[in-house]
Amino acid sequence: MDSAALDSRTQCVINPDTSAELICYGYHRSYWKSILAALSIIFSGGFMLLIFYWRPDWKLLCTHSLSVISKSTKVLLRTTDETNQVRLIYFLHLNPKLFFLVSNDAEIPLAHYGTDTASHNDVIYFKHHSLKYIWNNSVMTFKELGGLDKQATLAQLHQDSTTGLKHDDKDDRQNLYGQNLITVKVPPYHHLLMFEILNPFYVFQLFAVVFWMFDEYYIYAIAIFIMSFISAITSLIEVIHKLFQVKHKKSIHSKSQLFQISATNDQGLIILQIVEFYLNPCIPNRSPPFTGTCIVNESMLTGESVPVTKTPLPSGENELQHLYDTDSHKRHTLFCGTEVLQTRFYRGEMVKAVVVRTGYHTAKGKLVHSILYPKPVNMQLLRDAYKFIAVLFLIAMCGFIYTVVIQTISGETAAEIALNAIDLITISVPPALPLAMTIGIIYAQLRLKKQKIHCISPQRINVSGQIDVVAFDKTGTMTEDGLDLSHIVPSYVKSDPTLYNEPRQPEDTTEHPGVPTFHPCMVTCHTLTTIDGRILGDPLDLKMFEATKWQLESQYDQIQMTYFRPPMVASDMSVASPNGVSGGDDIGVVRQFPFASVLQRASVITRAYRAKPKEMKVYLKGAPEMVASLCLPSTVPADFHEVLKSYTQQGFRMIGMACKDLSLTWLKAQKIERSAVECDLKFLGLVALQNKLKPQSKGALLKLEKAEIRTVMVTGDNLLTALSVAHESGMIRPHEDVLLASTSDASENSPATLQWNYADNTGKSRACIVTICIMTSQLVPNWHLAVSGHDFAIIQNYFPEWKEILSVKGTVFARMSPDQKTELMENLQSVDHHVCMCGDGANDCGALKRAHAGVSLSEHEASVAAPFTSHTDLGIECVPTLIREGRAALVTSFGMFKFMALYSLIQFCTITLLYNDLTNLSDVMYLYIDLIIIDLVAVTMSRNHACKYLHKKHPPYSLLSVEMLVSLMVHIILQLGAQLLVFFMIRRQCWYTTLTPAQDVFNIPAQNTTMNVTDCPQLSNVIDQSNVDDPHEVMTYDTSALFYFSCFLYMSASVAFSRGFPYRTPIYKNYLFIGSLLFLVAFTLFLIFGAP
């Protein structure tokens, strides 16, 4: 490694131009700065420790100096997004010989790197969010340590699979990559409790409680302490519960046998070791199989509990030089966390696989990582609350200065001045504010629970009230889980005016002249398997197979893997099949080529039992256009495209089928390349399937549309199928136009291209020229954009100017990978949308976590990532319900915030006016206001239920919005004017008397301290205070008048801020609140007129 190059760098960019971009700064300790920081902590009484805890970057600046990376001991990581988060991390040093396991050249296959004990400089690295970042000299930055599968060819992986690792290589990889662990650490409870308590809100509450105890305001101090403690414990329980949920989901270990290494558990797996899998383990790593076949359950990745067949990596001569890629070879890769249901190999041997990734670099590791370390959501409400509290604090400081000046002039003692001034601060910034704001959230959470919507992140309830865009997954969310087989459309091979036969039911097995045999393709071309006596597999394959009424036999010999027997065998058992059961018409599968989304097809090589040894047949199915392109033109009907178009426009999902004869031996069938099999086929026809909407989907989408909340579909399914469901559900109306993206990737000779075409069902010409100007100025809400995952990636990488347009106008996003779904959430948020994501699978976890409000319709992995989990019976109807409750909670929080702010300002004005006469409210008065009026009102005014209907008017999004500020400022001015009016009016009354300051009163003879003599005839009503011993107990007209008047101000403010329609039920339906107000009014009037 070039030390000189490293020495010149004091900062670098990690993961540039990605959502995970970080700026890295190197620092080393400065001893004189550290000494000054220690002195500041001592002289501040430890307060600077809190500041350093809240702002670790300030601590670094106060104790360290910027330095070149090679000489640094710590690194400061700063995100480049709007959250601007910072992290402090220690540098570590790597054994020099292990550096040769890390590629510095993207062109060199990582699989070739072995050990080298030559002397070399230490390699620096650091760990961030459980991932290791190592200095890469070729790009002069830190690179994330990944697996050894990058730039490795299939030939290299096949070669490495024969011998495994030497013991020295195994130890080196163990030291570099660590154990195969996905660690979910649950910190000690006292650490988590301290983390909660050190929140700025709780720190201020603790300060206020201690101050009140010194000021002998015991009852209210104890009440606030108890409520704060309960709140902290509740938050602690929620955090622990969530961590244990994640830990439980990921802590499924299994036993695997290591080739050439003694048996161990999955935590000891090393990169490029060979693994033999037993039946039913949970895969602990990412491994491509090299021998045999595995049937696995990938519900952790896809959200669908569908068995998937994994076949060995291709070994054809032309395929061996291809680079191994997880996406293109996913049908040959066993992903971590997926469950092996069945293994198939000949002569009873075990299935072998090579480990290429472990830990957090695996599929399950990335899922857990996204849950443990999500990209923070922009919590505007919390930021606004901090800003508003800062304003209240500034007002408090003005009152603090005023109090100090007035009471210093009046000759008060320093202790009295300090107590009164600090008291004014605790009044201006009410410590009970966080508790009051969470009351509405607690009520909303309880109401959601009654409606079978569970919440693990209560703060997201308020955010859900701001939702203006909802993204839905399709399969299992908007539609039923499976597809229903409607009918088949066989193709004629004879010349006939009608080139397609009339549609017929799949169980109709009668032969028609000129119609090729259709059922063998439906029977054999799939990856179904029998597990515990049940036929399992892809729902589409299962529907097609069950419609044929054939039987599947799972007894395997050394030649064929699976046998299929027609239904007539039950009555004709004259011929014995290979497994000992009669059935001369049995068909056996010789080799499978599983479905690949890139190829858009699947195929099988089969051999009938009565056929000659070399007499085999190929059956293929897939996307109709792809199947037709692989067939002989003479076998494809002339009206193929018209018929296909008519069915797709009706919302059917179409599958094309084809076949051809093949003559080769079993051994050659195992080695023949896929491309040689899937060509020159004979077209058989089409199969029509229908994905039915859930009964609640249309109604829920209609409610969102009426509320002017935009809806988006994000699915991994086909684009045309997604468009059909969008039309059927009402997401896209019949009169609305849809533009489809048509893109091509960049190459050496040509740049990337983007073109927009009208969808076929619009009735307009296919091609259209659309510019950004047209998009932004002429497109009205009845235009929609639809893209596939490939188009989405091209636009993200090559057409950034279209990202905002796509985020605003995009409605259907098909063939989206889990990472692309998360990226879409970020794009929508970048244009100031508040996004809700509703999905049901583990492949939605990243998007569910990244969205402002994620709703899972599953109780499995997705429920851990999503803040909200709904019962599946509700369907997407839970989304309007959540938004209604979110709006109610949001408006309640805004109302409570304004009420608490106005309450503190009312009391601030009251005390400031009383300080002018060196008097104050008594403890009993404070207790009546704080504990009786405020707490009773705060608890009951938040009980308004959500409005039954979603209104098109959206609630304010910010505490600092014009509407909120104007409302609050008007009330502040009114209450201040009212208190000033009372203060001056009472002084003009004939019976008003000015008592001397308390410290002077008790220096004068008692008979002269009761009152000043006036000529008012009502002097007989004045209370004699000549026997009062405590100067703080002396009552004044100002104190009594402002106290009683302020009580009514608090009650009127609670009514003014109890907003009902269109977000909550009217105030008169909150019976507890109305009853509380009547009680408080009656009791206050009693204190004024009836108390002794």
Automatic annotation (TrEMBL):
Regions crossing the membrane: 35-54, 192-212, 218-240, 388-409, 421-444, 889-913, 925-943, 964-986, 1041-1058, 1070-1091
Protein location: Late endosome membrane; Membrane
Domain of life: Eukaryota
Membrane topology: Multi-pass membrane protein
Entry keywords, A to Z: ATP-binding, Endosome, Magnesium, Membrane, Metal-binding, Nucleotide-binding, Phosphoprotein, Translocase, Transmembrane, Transmembrane helix
Sample GO molecular function, one term: ATP hydrolysis activity
Keyword Magnesium: yes
EC number of this enzyme: 7.2.2.-
GO terms for cellular component: late endosome membrane
InterPro entries documented for this protein: ATPase_P-typ_cation-transptr_N (IPR004014), ATPase_P-typ_cyto_dom_N (IPR023299), ATPase_P-typ_P_site (IPR018303), ATPase_P-typ_TM_dom_sf (IPR023298), ATPase_P-typ_transduc_dom_A_sf (IPR008250), ATPase_P-type_domA (IPR059000), HAD-like_sf (IPR036412), HAD_sf (IPR023214)
Residue span(s) of domain P5B-type ATPase N-terminal: 21-136
Signal peptide region: none
Catalyzed reactions: ATP + H2O = ADP + phosphate + H(+)
One of the GO BP terms on file: intracellular calcium ion homeostasis
A Pfam family reported for this protein in Swiss-Prot or TrEMBL: Cation_ATPase
Annotated family: Belongs to the cation transport ATPase (P-type) (TC 3.A.3) family. Type V subfamily.
Protein's name according to its UniProt entry: Cation-transporting ATPase
Species in which this protein is naturally found: Ciona savignyi (Pacific transparent sea squirt)
